[in-house]
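Q: Please design a sequence for this.
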C-alpha cells in the first residue's frame, strides 16, 4: 500500500511538469525612439495606437491610454501563440483583433474582449526619459 501511494505521488508530481500550452516566450525587447519620430506621431492623441515591427515576437503595439500614459504589447495573439498570429488594430483603435481566431483585445489594458481569447496580450514596460524619448523594454 505504501509503495502504491509513493508511486501515485510521483506520477502526480511528474505529470505537472509539462510545458504550459499557449505560452508566449520571453525575448529581449529594447525599443527607444523620440516622441517626435514620425512612426509615433499618431500617439499625439489619447486613445491612439501604432504598430512597430521588428521587436518582440510579432512586433509591438504602442497605445496611448485615455489617462495619457503609454502601454506596449506584443502583437502575438494569446490565442494559440505558437501560430505567431499578429493582432491587427481595429478601425476605432481601442481594440485589436487576432485575424486567425477572431479574438479581440482591449488596448487600454490588453485584456481579452471577445472569445476565444481568455488571456491578455503580453505587456512590456514603457518609460519616458527626459519627457521626450519613449522606451519599451522587458
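A: Design:
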Amino acid at each position: 500500500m505504501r509503495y502504491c501511494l509513493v508511486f501515485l505521488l510521483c506520477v502526480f508530481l511528474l505529470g505537472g511538469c509539462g510545458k504550459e500550452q499557449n505560452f508566449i516566450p520571453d525575448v529581449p525587447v529594447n525599443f527607444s525612439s523620440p516622441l517626435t519620430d514620425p512612426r509615433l506621431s499618431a500617439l499625439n492623441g489619447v486613445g491612439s495606437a501604432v504598430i512597430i515591427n521588428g521587436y518582440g515576437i510579432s512586433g509591438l503595439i504602442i497605445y496611448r491610454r485615455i489617462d495619457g500614459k503609454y502601454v506596449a504589447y506584443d502583437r502575438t495573439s494569446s490565442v494559440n501563440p505558437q501560430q505567431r498570429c499578429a493582432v491587427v488594430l481595429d478601425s476605432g483603435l481601442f481594440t485589436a483583433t487576432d485575424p486567425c481566431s477572431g479574438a479581440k483585445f482591449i488596448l487600454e489594458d490588453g485584456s481579452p474582449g471577445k472569445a476565444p481569447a481568455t488571456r491578455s496580450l503580453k505587456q512590456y514596460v514603457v518609460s519616458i526619459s527626459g519627457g521626450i524619448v519613449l522606451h519599451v523594454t522587458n
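Q: Thanks. Anything notable?
A: Residues 3-16 have pLDDT under 50 and may be disordered. Helices lie at 2-15.
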